[in-house]
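The record is given unchanged here:
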Amino acid sequence: MGRFSWLYRVLFPLYFSTYVSSLFLSPSFPLRHSDESYALLQFKNSFSVDDSVSFASVCDGTTPPTTSWDGGSDCCAWSGVTCDNITGHVIGLDLSCGGLQGIIHSNSSLFLLHHLQSLNLSHNDFRGRAIPHEIGKLSNLQHLEIVWANLSGHIPQQFSYLSKLRTLRLQSLGSKRQLRLTTFTFKRILANLTKLQVLDLFCVDMSYVEPVSLMNLSSSLTSLGLSNCGLQGNLPDTIFHLPKLEQLYLGFNENLRGSLPRYNWSSSLTKLDLSFTKFLIDIPDLTRNLKYLDSLYLRNCNFVGSHALLFSNLTQIISLDLSYNDIGGHIPWSSLNFKRMKHLNLGGNNFTGQLPRFYSYNATQISFLPYPSENKSIAPAPWCLENLGLSDNLLSGTIPSWLYSIPSLTYLGLGNNQFTGHTHQFESLSLEGLDLSNNKLHGCFPLSIFFQQVNLSVLDLSSNYLTGFCSVNSNHSLGFLSNLRWLSFSHNQIQGQVPEWLWNVGTDSLFYLNLSHNSLTDIERIPWRNLEYLDLRSNLLHGQLPIPPPSIRVFSVSHNRMTGEVPSWICNLRSLEVLDLANNTLNGKLPPCMGNLSGNLSVLDIRMNKLHGVIPATLFGKKSALRAVNLNGNQLEGFLPRSLLNCEKLEVLDIGNNMINDTFPHWLESLPVLQVLILRSNKFHGSVPNPTVRFPFQKLRILDLSHNKFSGNLPTKLFENLRAMMETDTKKGLEYMGDLSYYQDSVSVEMKGHLHQLVKILVTFTTIDLSGNNFEGEIPESIGKLKALKVLNISHDKLNGFIPPSLGNLSELESLDLSSNVLVGTIPQQLADINFLSALNLSENRLVGRIPWGTQFQTFGNNSYGGNLDLCGPPLSKSCGNHVQQPSTSNFRQEDEDEQTNGIGWMIVLIGFGCGMVIGISIGYAVLSEKRIAQLMRWIGGERLCELLKRFKSKAR
C-alpha cells in the first residue's frame, strides 16, 4: 500500500463511519431508543390489563396489544407501536381495546414520547378521571383519538397547543357526557388548530358553548361530528359553506336551532345528520342540494313544505333516515333507487297501505307494482339493501316475497304495524336483526330463521298470533344461531313445553330471553350460560322454579303455577337485580340467606303467594340496593324488621294483606326516597305518632294504613310534613314510578268500595287511605295542605266533629270517602269547588242541611249521601223547604246503582266520572283497547279527552 497508506489512514475511518451510519439509518435497521422503550414499559406497568373490560361489541376477540411488549426486544416490533423508518423514534401508539384499567397521571411516562404523531387510547377504562393537562406537551401529534375511555371533567386548554392536529376524536362513554368543553377552551382550540380536518366530539358536554364560535372552524375541515353534545341556540349556516366539508353530524341536540342555507352549500358534502334537532328544514331548499348527498339522517325533525318532495331527488342516496316525522300516505317506492340504497329507515311515521310486489328491474332501477296483484316468477334483482326499517307505521297486508329474498339484508324492522298472514322462509343467510313484533301474524315460526340465519343476533316475534314452534326433523343439525343475543316470543299463543331444540339456540351468546304471556306449561331447564334477562311471566308453568345461570340479572316467573318453597339456591345469584316471583303458589319461609343479594338486588317481588313465618331481619343487609319490596298477599307474621333502614334507596314497600302484628313503623320516616308505603290488612295496632325527624316521609306519595287496628287521633304533624303531596308538578306528565323496561311497579288502591290494580303508577298519583281502623277525633285542618292529593279515604273509622272546609283546597282531589264515621254539621260549600272530584261518599254519618250545589256535585247519586237523615236537596228526594225551587233529580246520574251501564264495565266507568283522569289512566292502561277508550270518551262527551288519551297510549308504548 506504500505511497497510498496515508490516504487509506485518512479515508477508511470516514468510509467506515459512513457505512455504519448507513446501516443504522436505513429502513431495515432503525435506531433503537432505549429511553422510549423504557417509557412505554413504564406506561404499561402503570395499569392493570383486563381483556374483558367492557366494549365487547367493539373489541370482541381483540388481544390487548401490550401483552406482546417485552423489555428485551425492540419496541418498534411491539404491537400497537409504530416507529419512524429513519430516526427510529416512536411516532405512533395505538392502544385501543387495550384492556387498560387505571389512571393517566400528570407525570405519566406517556408524555415523554415527544415524537408521537398518532395516539389512540380508545376503549379503555381510565376510571372516570380527567385528561391530564400535560397532553399539550405532545406537540407533534397529528392524530388523537380517545373514544369511550371513561374519562371525565373539562377538556384542558392545553389541547390548543397541539397545532399540528389533523384528527381529533374525543367521545364520552355512551350518553353520559362525562367530558365537558367550555366556550373559552373551544375558541382557543379552533384558533390554533388551523390544520384540523376531522373533529369528532360525540357526547362531549357543550351545553355552555356558544354555537357562534363554530364560525371559526378550520377551512380544511372535512368531517365535523357534534352529535348529542347538548348544543343549544342558533347555529350559523356558515358551516354548510365550508369548502372541503364532507360529513356533518349535528343530531340529537334537541335545543339546537337553525336553518339550511338556500344556496352555496359545500359541493363536497356527502353526509348530513340533523336528527332530533329544532332545525327548520325547508324541503325545497334541501332537495335542491340533495344531489350532493349520499347519506341523509333527518329523524324527528321540523319540516317546511311537502314531504313528497323529499323523495323527488334521491337517486344518489345510500343511507336515508326519515323516521318519526309523521309522514303519511303510501311509501313512494318508485322514487327510491334500490340498486344503490343500503340503509332505509321510514319507521315511526303514518305510512299506510300494503307493501308493493316486486315486478321487474333494468340497468338503472327496480320497479314495483303498487299492490300485490300479480305473481310473476322472475330472477332476483341486484339488491344492495342492508337495513330496512318500517316499524311503527300503519302498514297492512301480507309481507311480500321480495323481502324474504334480499341477499344483502342484515336488518329488517316491520314491528308495530298491521301485517297479517304467515311468515315465510328467508332465502338469504345475512340477517343479523329481525323485528316482526306487534303485528297480526299467525302460524308457526319459520324454521329458516333458526336453522339458516347463522349471523342472527336479535330476533323479536312478540305480540302476534303465532302458535308455536314448527316440528323439527330429528336429523336436522342443531348447531344453529350461535350468535343470538336477544330473543323474544312474548304475547303469542305458544302452548305446551318449551321445545328441546330451543335449548341449543345461543347457548353461549344469549343474554335476553322473553317467553312471557303465552301458554307454556313446562321449561325443563335453562341451559343458556350467559343469560342475564329471563322473562317467563304469565304462562301456565308448574312445578319447581327453574334454575337460572349465575349470570342472571332479571329473573321473572310471576303469574304462573309454580309450587314449592323459595329455594336457597337463589342466594347464590350474586348478580341478581330483579327477582319477580309474584302470583304463584310458593309456600314455606323466606330464606334468611337472601340478604346475600342485597348489594345488587333492586326489586324483590314475591306478592300473592303462600309464604308464612316472619320476615327475616337478614333479608335487608347493609348497603342494600333494594328499591322496591312487595310481599303483599302472603301469610307473613311477626314484626316488621328494623333492618329495612339499611335500604336507603327504597321507594316502594308493600306488605299489605299479611298477618304482621306490630305498631306503626314510624322509624321508616327517615328513609329519604320512600314513595309508597302500604300496610293494609294486617294486625298493626296502636296510635300513629307524630314524626320525630325534621323531614319525615318527604317523598311519600301513597300511604295505605287501611284495615288494621290503629287507634287514637289522626297524626296532624304527619300531614303537615308530607311535602310530596303538597305541590303538583305539571312537568312530570306521564312519568311512572320505577318505569323500567324489565319491571313495572304496581299496587292496588281502594276506590268506591272496590280494590283496583294500578298496573302503572303515575308519579303524580297520590293517595291516603286510613279506612277500616279505629281512628277517632276530628279530621285535621292540615290535610287541606296536601294540594296534590288524588284520593282520600278515611271511611269506617270513629271520626267525629265537622268536615273541615280546608278540604276544599285539595284542588287535584278526584276521590273522597269519609263514609261510616260520626261526622256532624253541614257539608262545606268549598267541596263543590273541587273541579276534578269524580267520586264522593259521605254516607252513614250525621250530616245535616242542604247538599252543596256545584258542577261536580251534580254528578253524584243518592248513595253518596245515604244514612244522613237530616241532609236535604238534590239528588235526595227530601226537600229543604219552599223558599228555593230545587233542580230536578233527573239531572243526577245514579251510577252506583248499575256498574254495567250500556255494557261498559265499572272499570271503564272509573276512567270517566267514576275515578277521574289520572286514576283512570293508571287503571285503564292495561285493560282497554284504543277503540274502547275512544267509545267511552265520546260517550261522556269528551272528544278532547279522547285525543289526549290516544296521545298518552302512543307515548306509553
Summary: Confidence is low (pLDDT under 50) at residues 1-30, 373-379, 883-915, 924-957. The first helix runs from residue 5 to 25. The longest strand covers residues 440-445. The CA atoms of residues 353 and 952 lie 25 Å apart.
